[in-house]
Amino acid sequence: MAGVISRGIQAPIIREGDDIVEIVVNSVYASEKEDNYTLKDRDIIAVTESVVARAQGNYVTVDQVAQDIRNKFGTKKLGLVFPILSRNRFSMCLKGIARAVDEVVILFSYPNDEVGNPLMARSAYVKHKYSEVTSYQEKDFVETFGSPVHPFTGVNYLDFYRQVIESEGAKATFLFSNDCRYIATACDDILCCDIHTRNETRDTLKALGKNVCTLADVMSAPVDGSGYHDQYGLLGSNKATEEKLKLFPRNCQPVVDGIQARILADRGIHVEAMVYGDGAFKDPVGGIWELADPVVSPAYTAGLSGRPNELKLKYLADNDFADLSGEELKAAIRKEIQAKNADLVGDMSSEGTTPRQYTDLLGSLCDLTSGSGDKGTPFIVIQNYFKNYAE
Q: In this predicted structure, what is the pLDDT of residue 346?
């Protein structure tokens, strides 16, 4: 009778140099014995990106970030476009940036940042939304829209980011606009700090003749021999200490392939495996989109490619088989599932199903299962995910 089961698996504290494949597999085996379940073909084992990066030693210092900013820009005044409002995600990046220059000019989007963190109350935005606020100084902004205190963290990010910049001996200048081109009126050297729209922002500003990089370009190669991520740079980074950042993991494919191969060799079972970061869901109350990582899953085995191809049971029951009930209805729906087309795009019988990538759906499930606090379950085992009503 069971449908999808998602289990958080406890693990030891991961340190640099640990064999992450060995730890994952042994932790799952121990969980099987203690929790009385057995791995089956097509079960999914997921590993949070944080412990992979920890095992890789994928850390950089604030000084290394500052040096890379100097290497890439060589300027005293740097513009930042659309940073997210986050102590964990952006404050350490900002610290390194400010350490490298004399003035930081930040262009904030409003009423929210890219992932939905609010810079103002919705009611204040609605009242003033027909007025462009690019000309506002921070004081005027606060007087118009109120104190920008985050409703969940209780942090005023304008004050907080100003303090971060000034603590490094740099001047802080804040601008407000949803048009990235506004930063071009103040700066010639610009760092695009948005995550998912970074390439569009970069190309727009480059077309204006500006010297532009994205966060993916910073720490994309070693500085003083440091560890680095060769694709995402500072994207997906987190605060580790007051002087160190943990980067998004690099080259995760050997990890997921290694987990799959090890269990196949041990058990003859073909599992799928993935590394996951933030889930791709949005909080309906706070309006915050969780995805501050560049992708939900930086690596996964081949069986997790693609999207679900599912029929909507409610549609079948209410339309095609509205005159059936009981076992006759169950048999008819099971037969329909077994005979479904390989591609249901545009088919009314699939209307209302979720047209998203498997890895995005699974990453959200994993992120919600493991949480981001003190549960201590960085590994997830998902069973019956590919099982349908006809099986």
A: 47
Residue with tokens 């990890």, as numbered in its chain:
255
Residue scoring higher pLDDT (343 or 356): 356
How many Å apart are CA 193 and CA 182, to the nearest integer?
A: 15
- Please tell me the predicted confidence (pLDDT) of residue 163: 94
The dihedral formed by the CA atoms of 337, 341, 347 and 351, expressed in degrees to the nearest 10: 40
Q: What is the Cα 347 distance to its own chain's centre?
A: 31
The residue assigned the tokens 């037969």 is: 335
CB within 8 A of 247, min separation 6: which ones?
Answer: 53, 58, 59, 60, 219, 227, 228, 229, 232, 233, 234, 236, 237
Q: Which two tokens stand for residue 43?
A: 């079960």
SS3 146: coil
Q: Which range in 114-123, 126-135, 267-276, 374-383 is most confidently predicted, on average pLDDT?
A: 267-276
Q: What is the pTM of this model?
A: 0.85
Token pair in block for residue 282: 């949005």
d(CA 320, CA 310): 16
Alpha-carbon distance of 293 to 279, in angstroms, equals 9
Q: Which of 308, 307, 292, 252 is nearest to 275 (CA)?
A: 252
Higher-confidence residue: 54 or 150?
54
